[in-house]
Amino acid sequence: MAINILISDPLSEDGIYPLRQEKELDLNIVIETGLTPDALKAKIKDFDVLLVRSQTKVTRDIIEAADNLKLIGRAGVGVDNIDLDAATEKGIIVVNAPDGNTNSAAEHTTAMIMSLARHIPHAHMSLQEGRWDRKKFVGVELKNKTLGVIGFGRIGQEVAHRAKGNRMNVIAYDPFLTAEKAEKLGVDFGSVEDVVKVADFITVHTPLLKETKHMINKDIFALMKDDVRIINCARGGIIDEEALYDAIVAGKVAGAALDVMEEEPFVGNRLLDLPQVIATPHLGASTIEAQESVAVDVSNDILSYFNIGTVRNP
Ligand code: MLT
């Protein structure tokens, strides 16, 4: 019997090559992106596998309608767009690709830090608008500044590595970070409060969980140094956007670089009206290499599940 696979977000065609060339299993691959929640709900009952990126919201409602679903593959790290409790209750396995986009996310974060420090997007726009404005775009160096990294998993560590290449000092917070590990990685470590008190740039790299929602809030902003710069290429919601807005308007925060926000797409978000803010539309993992890699990882998991009954990363 055919195994029906629905791909509901744009995925790298090279990345799903392992599925395309599979000969033993009878795979029926359907690609339909941009489905409304109702359309997905109506469709999902015919499928054994749902393969998504971050756009498709795999809600309880969708999962309850998914009578044949055995596996949800997330081509990326964050699984906050999937209702894990609902999937577990139905015995549906959820697999992600935790490593495939680490490098791209770290590179994007580094690009955001540099763009923020040197006003690159605004300077470029100003030139396009016909101005030669050198005084307005005086930046700051990264050398000898302190980067605070909140969340020191794979991506946080890669960002720190690059920051050290730019001769920054790094101080990190992570609930799993120990003194030995911090020393080995050549960074200082402390609580969130310790980190934000000394950092000139603060970048967040935690998943979005109950515990991390709005962890960077009004009280935490109050502890920061004046003229701090904030970067979020992880998940919207880790930073309380109202508190960030107020801190920028009050002159506490000199700039923010945001790749993610609580509601996406975030066109029209009032933070975008502030000249201190630069933003990209959730592009952290959007490279040819990362997209191929995450799609290959989940494709291999699907094959492994149907061939041998287990997955690499459930
Ligand atoms: C992730 O969680 O892997 C990233 O946010 C990338 C994506 O949007 O797929």
TrEMBL record:
Protein's pathway: Amino-acid biosynthesis; L-serine biosynthesis; L-serine from 3-phospho-D-glycerate: step 1/3
Keyword DNA damage part of the UniProt annotation: no
Catalytic function, reaction form: (R)-2-hydroxyglutarate + NAD(+) = 2-oxoglutarate + NADH + H(+); (2R)-3-phosphoglycerate + NAD(+) = 3-phosphooxypyruvate + NADH + H(+)
GO molecular function: phosphoglycerate dehydrogenase activity
EC number: 1.1.1.95
Key words of the record: Amino-acid biosynthesis, NAD, Oxidoreductase, Serine biosynthesis
UniProt keyword NAD present: yes
Function: Catalyzes the reversible oxidation of 3-phospho-D-glycerate to 3-phosphonooxypyruvate, the first step of the phosphorylated L-serine biosynthesis pathway. Also catalyzes the reversible oxidation of 2-hydroxyglutarate to 2-oxoglutarate.
Family: Belongs to the D-isomer specific 2-hydroxyacid dehydrogenase family.
Protein name: D-3-phosphoglycerate dehydrogenase
Organism (species): Viridibacillus soli
